[in-house]
Specification:
This protein is an alpha+beta fold. 45% of the residues lie in helices and 15% in strands. Strands 1, 2, 3, 4, 5, 6 and 7 form a seven-stranded mixed sheet that branches. Bound molecules: adenine (ADE).
């Protein structure tokens, strides 16, 4: 048997016995698989499961998703991060309805023409839902392949990426490409882990060049990303007649379409109080009477570490004149928690308990 055929056989036999029972593995519906693969980008399986189940219960088909109000969609995505995924998913659902009669196209090439579907998602959906011999390379697969072929280059380097995709394509070009791809992901998630890989339980141990050379712990080589920038911002629980003001960010950009508490960035050498007064004046045309500090919220974004100074503030009378937000609402306290809030806004809103 050729080496790749033997490797595929070992991989599939292992996967049949060891595959985790995950909700998106109980369906062959291409839409459901697309939703799952979109949520799984950059996000852990255990985090995704409850979001996926709620999302599929509320938006069970392409048509329902295409017709859904954006706020409703964002409410179901709030907390998962990378919100452009949700907006793209809906934009793509609309195109599937108008251009493909509501059925997801069944080739990687056509899938990639849809908003938000890149090489990974196209390969995953085409192989898992449509049995196309298309590769996938995500973080887990890259680690497995870098070890299997003892690839010593930085896996983010273009030449290494090219090699990884071509090795993945070779493996996926057998029968059951979807299972082969999922098996590689599963192996990376459960056996070929970043630290302390369990090589003695690995179905590919006889094929693995890193294991033969004893260098599995040093692979993959991965360049460090630039350290995350520290940023500071301010926000207020702005109260009027027992209601709190919430604002919505315009679509596009960081946290686009999500609701939050009014505020904005703190400039260098600006005090938090002054930053609050300035942001509320510039962003909402509101003056504040008083601002009482409540404490700070920390939040980690992919490229930033945020420290958000929280205040309770009383607004002077006057109408809101928005600049930079696309909606605002004075909410009863309980209603504010029902809005599609970003994870950081949800942490900030917890200060309502103190008010
Ligand atoms: N990560 C990305 N896609 C996955 C899948 N289909 N199953 C498990 N983990 C995944």
């Amino acid at each position: 048997m050729k080496p790749t055929a033997a490797l595929r056989r070992a991989l599939l036999a292992w996967f049949r016995k060891n595959r985790r029972d995950l909700p998106w593995r109980r369906t062959r519906d291409p839409y459901a698989i697309w939703v799952a693969e979109t949520m799984l980008q950059q996000t852990r399986v255990q985090t995704v499961i409850p979001y996926y189940e709620r999302f599929m219960a509320r938006f069970p088909s392409v048509q329902v998703l295409a017709d859904a109000p954006t706020d409703e969609l964002m409410r179901h995505w709030a907390g998962l991060g990378y919100y452009s995924r949700a907006r793209n998913l809906q934009a793509a659902a609309c195109q599937v309805v108008t251009r493909h009669g509501g059925a997801l196209p069944n080739t990687a090439r056509e899938l990639r023409a849809l908003p938000g579907i890149g090489r990974y998602t196209a390969g995953a959906v085409a192989s898992i839902a449509f049995d196309r011999r298309e590769p996938v390379v995500d973080g887990n697969v890259a680690r497995v392949l870098a070890r299997l072929f003892a690839l010593r280059e930085d896996i983010r380097a273009p030449a290494a990426q090219k090699r990884l995709w071509s090795e993945a394509a070779r493996i996926a070009s057998g029968a059951q490409p979807g299972a082969l791809n999922e098996a590689l992901m599963e192996l990376g998630a459960t056996i070929c882990t970043p630290r302390a890989p369990r090589c003695s339980d690995c179905p590919l141990r006889r094929h693995c060049a890193a294991r033969a050379a004893g260098c599995q712990a040093e692979l993959p080589v991965k360049s460090r990303l630039a350290p995350r920038r520290r940023v500071e911002a301010v926000a207020a629980l702005l109260l009027r007649g027992g209601r709190v003001l919430a604002v919505r960010r315009p679509p596009g950009g960081l946290l686009g379409g999500l609701w939050e508490l009014p505020g904005g960035p703190r400039r260098r050498r600006e005090s938090p109080d002054a930053a609050l007064a300035r942001n509320l004046r510039e962003g909402l045309g509101l003056a504040i009477h008083s601002a009482e500090p409540l404490g700070a919220v920390r939040h980690e974004f992919t490229h930033r570490l945020l420290r958000l100074h929280m205040f309770r503030a009383q607004a002077a009378p006057g109408r809101v004149r928005r600049a930079g937000f696309d909606a605002h609402r004075w909410c009863a306290k309980r209603a504010a928690a029902e809005l599609p809030l970003s994870a950081v806004a949800r942490k900030a809103l917890a200060f309502l308990e103190l008010c």
